[in-house]
Amino acid sequence: MITFENATKVFADGTTAVEGLSLKVEAGTLTVFVGPSGCGKTTSMRMVNKMVAPTSGRILVGGRDIAGLPAVPHRLGIGYVIQHGGLLPHRTVLDNVAQVLRLRGLRKRVARARAHEAIERVRLRPELIDRYPAQLSGGQQQRVGVARALAADPPILLMDEPFSAVDPVVREELQLEMLRIQSELRKTIILVTHDIDEALRLGDRIAVFAPGGAVQQYADPETVLTRPANAHVHALVGRDQGYRSLAFASADAIPTLPLGPVLAGRIRVGEAWELEVDENGRASAWIDRRGARRAPGSQVPPGGSLRAALEAILTSPAPYGIRGDGSGRPTALIEAADVYRALALRNGSLR
Ligand SMILES: Nc1ncnc2c1ncn2[C@@H]1O[C@H](COP(=O)(O)OP(=O)(O)OP(=O)(O)O)[C@@H](O)[C@H]1O
């Protein structure tokens, strides 16, 4: 657990970057610091690995005040990911990841073996390990940055705008990857972003910062979204609030048309459509009555939200959305009309 106790940082030039920060990040959870530029998110995060010392107040890690701990060994238990990955340009991917292990005194061969495992964990293509950072895409560099932070298996991870240098599609991919990794590893994570959607998607809890470095609200995403503490938080989440809140409404009440056992081939759906399933049981295309193949759209995972259901309908070329098993295999279909009915019921416009 990481605890901030009334932590304040005033820089030498008189700038108050952080003002009276008090919050707890429970072990195994992901807390997002979100807010506009310059409101003290990074400074707050850097207090945890002693890159910044608080002017007053305390930071405790696992119940111990870190003020008295030597910085270098303290940092060994903390992974750090920054924008663009922060990779060493003259080292290969493998050596970048192995480097943190070498610093811990592991022999070269052992460090490289462990680095391989970390690279696998972030699903970076193995053929990329001998490349240099400049030969990777932004998204790939970020994956290497995450692999490097995870390589030594530290209990704590600090992530400063880790996904902001990549385009929105890659960004969402990396966010989902992060959720998967976190569900396996259960690290204690602080992630800094200015993107409220990223905060809502990734955070177990969200701390909303305002200029001047004071936290306005610290709560779970649904509370921040549906009960913003004040005008500042409201301004941050206000836009598209109704749509965003659908992420917290269940899609379970939407009637489904079960598909039964799905084998490779085509499944006829209604008069006009066929769903094509590949040899791995995954939906590969919708085929219309003229035989044109179209991308199948997103799927509603088990336990998925009303927002996932709406997205499945909006991205589908057919008037059906696909419920999946979480790995791309369709299990049932939902109809657009039923999704719209569920939305209307939620909005209270149908009784
Ligand atoms: N070393 C420093 N000396 C003086 N002022 C600083 C220093 N580092 C940061 N600041 C100031 O402290 C304030 C908070 O900065 P910080 O980087 O923590 O904000 P942030 O919310 O992370 O913003 P961004 O998203 O732009 O990184 C800003 O006004 C910044 O200019």
UniProtKB/TrEMBL annotation:
Keyword Lipoprotein: no
InterPro entries associated with the record: AAA+_ATPase, ABC_transporter-like_ATP-bd, ABC_transporter-like_CS, P-loop_NTPase
Keywords: ATP-binding, Nucleotide-binding, Transport
Domain ABC transporter: 2-237
The enzyme's E.C. designation: 7.6.2.9
Similarity annotation: Belongs to the ABC transporter superfamily.
Protein name per UniProt: ABC-type quaternary amine transporter
Organism: Leucobacter edaphi
Source species taxonomy: Bacteria, Bacillati, Actinomycetota, Actinomycetes, Micrococcales
